[in-house]
Amino acid sequence: MKKYLLIVIVLFFCGSYFPQVKQHESAITAKEITGHISYLASDAMKGRAGGSKEIMAAVNYIKDQFKLFGLKPMFKNSFFQEYSFVSDVKVSKRNVLAFKVNGKEIKLSYGTDFITAPFSGTVKLNSKLVFAGYGISAPKLNYDDYKNLDVKDKIVVVMRNNPEYDNPHSQFDKFSSLRSKAAVAKEKGAKGIIFVNGPLPKDSDDELARLKYDRAGGIKDFSVVHVKRNLIDQLFNAEHINFEQHQKIMKDSNKTASFDFAKSSAQLATEIKEVEAKTVNVCGYLEGNDPKLKDEYLVIGAHYDHLGMGGDGSLYKGKVEQIHNGADDNASGTAGVLELAEKFASIKAQLKRSIIFVTFSGEELGLLGSNYFVNHPPVPVEKMITMLNLDMVGRLNAEKTLTVYGTGTSPNWKELLKEKNIDSLQLAFNDEGFGPSDQSSFYGKAIPVLFFFTGVHADYHRPTDDADLINSTGEEIILNYVFDIANTVSNQPEKPNYISVPRKEQASGGWKVYVGTIPDYSSNSEGFKLSGVSPGSPAEKAGLKANDIMIKFGDKKIENIYDYVYALQDHVPGDVVEVQVKRNNELITVKVTLGAK
Fold first, then answer.
1. Residues 220, 210: Cα–Cα separation, whole Å
2. In this structure, is residue 502 part of a structural domain?
3. Which pLDDT tens digit goes with each residue over 557-597?
4. Which among 100, 124, 133, 254 is most buried, taking Cβ atoms within 10 Å?
5. Does residue 468 sit in the same domain as residue 557?
């Protein structure tokens, strides 16, 4: 343990536990790619989780490489753009629960008898209790646990799962999440919700839920807890009802069986506090030499963060925590930015436009770093003429398949991409500018983009994404290809023209609802903040814009992204829905005709 702590301390303060790449060549080489990735994806980095101490070693490594290549710091005298984000939530000591059953008080122990959900609000309650079955209100499925039930200002007791708990393809699945049930309870007028594991199926355990921060705001003025079943048994017993038999009757009759707990009440207090962390984008630039064009900037970027020990983004199913090294995702892209920075630095006297090289943190948390960068830009965004994004470029396969997103965002992209393909890469084009990586943040600012990607593989978001599986020779080919494209963009007389690419609509039945809103995951605003809208989407046609904060969708109040997702479930393509947003200090209502996806 002491040895491990020493390693962490060295990493944090020096960023030099692994040796720097000693032999730098101006050429892009597989050897240097291997060196960069081996360092960034080493176990000592512990997965480069956003906001972690270990990620600072990667930060310092990237900065030192930029300095070595002769890049200028992007932020006055610093290569760092620091920003804060909510990394987690914690419960305070003010989370208490006590039942009063037939006049007798039963105090519950936190962590043993109950826990508070991370999306709970901060509330104190002394309320009556109501059993609301599974807490599902789905009139279209002819099922409503709240039918003829008055829950106003009360605490509802709700079973987890759904009436078809033994059906892996139940029609009730989309109504079964704890957040969804809590949102319904609040909408019905309740002040809090108590979750419990139902007695059935018989072989089910009664473990308290492992509730983790889900990267969205809490439910304001509403308490959410999970309680052990033996405590809820006492509430049922006081009403002379057997909990298991009651659930069985509900199952057999396929009917709701909600009721008031006449003999019981609860005192409940919940308090959740947000944990704030700091992280940085690392950014340097090379100044162009043309008196006019040097004030225009090409941006070459990649995210350097990964999943740490796993967490919600991991696809690993094991019970023992493991380091997710993220060699391909995205040490490969970070190595690409470093190699391109080095090569361009060797010919900086030939550059007409300026080039920004940036590595983002927070991509795995929802494009936080790139979103912050474009909203707090070191140069005006209108001066950023193109963004080239590298994300997972380390697994070029035997067929040499390279997917390029954003090929429709400027009229000359496809011709240029084909012209520079001297190594016979098998190019797969996707026209859309929005997509699952950092180029989306730039495209939302009307900047043409290209995103280079060698594809998802069996090690994606798993502990097995290690450096020894990287095809460094293949990445060398890709980076030389990107260099030729970037060099052309940097030096051509005219900047690339931006094109708004409409989303391709699908054309036959069975669709889910499509609106075309792009979430701003970095926002802590109450409501659902948009970082943009897809071109040609229902949202754009209705007049919704970037930075709008949605507060109502139809008759549903929207406090966070989950409220929005649940509200969509009540609609089908073709519905016309009134949507209310805050735009600056003004309330605006628009009508959105929902599409299909």
1. 21
2. no
3. 998 888 898 889 888 899 999 999 999 989 999 999 998 87
4. 133
5. no
